[in-house]
Amino acid sequence: MAAKYLYLVRMDVDEDKEAHFNDIYDREHIPEISKVPGVGNVTRYETATEGMPKYAALYEMDSPDLPSSPEWKKASDTGTWKDTVRPFTKNRSHTIYKVMEPGS
Q1: What is the CA 50 to chain-centroid distance, rounded?
Q2: Is there a contact between 1 and 62 (Cβ–Cβ < 8 Å)?
Q3: CB 13 within 8 A of CB 70
Q4: Cβ neighbours for 90, distance < 8 A, ≥ 6 positions apart
Q5: What is the CB neighbour count within 10 angstroms for residue 51?
Q6: SS3 98
Q7: pTM for the predicted model, two decimal places
Q8: Per residue of the chain (104 residues), what is the pLDDT tens digit?
Q9: CB count, 10 Å around CB of 98?
Q10: How far is 89 from 67, CA to CA, in rounded Å?
Q11: Residues 6+ apart with CB under 8 A from 22
Q12: Inter-residue long-range contacts of 29-38, CB under 8 Å, 24+ positions, other chains counted
């Protein structure tokens, strides 16, 4: 069954921090967030369109409340993401999408 919700997170990161950002995102951040009950696949993207945030991550979720849950916050703050990556991100946006049922 497909996820009921998609959580799109987009951001830029300071150029001199990109290698660290990508390493920590892949090695720590996604694995920790993926442990949160109700989180499915997580896919990362790099923009192909000028003028948009360079990086995006798409999280499949069972509930639109997950990103504000204590479990998500704890997972997001685990490891070095909070202190060595998050301060260097900018132009962030967070959008939750609900799957449209046929005819809606």
Answers
A1: 20
A2: no
A3: no
A4: 11, 12, 13, 14
A5: 5
A6: strand
A7: 0.91
A8: 578 999 999 999 999 999 999 999 999 999 999 999 999 999 999 999 999 999 999 999 999 999 999 999 999 999 999 999 999 999 999 999 999 877 66
A9: 10
A10: 18
A11: none
A12: 29/76, 29/79, 29/81, 29/85, 30/57, 32/75, 32/76, 32/78, 32/79, 32/81, 33/59, 33/72, 33/75, 33/76, 35/75, 36/66, 36/69, 36/71, 36/72, 36/75, 37/71, 38/62, 38/63, 38/66
Amino acid occupying residue 7: Y
Look at the domain 5-98 and name its fold: Alpha-Beta Plaits (3.30.70)
Residue ranges covered by each domain of the chain: 5-98
Tokens of 26: 């892949």
Closest CA to 93 of 41, 65, 48, 58: 58
Whole-angstrom distance between the N-terminal and C-terminal Cα of the chain? 19
CA distance 104 to 97: 14
Say which residue the tokens 């499949």 belong to: 60
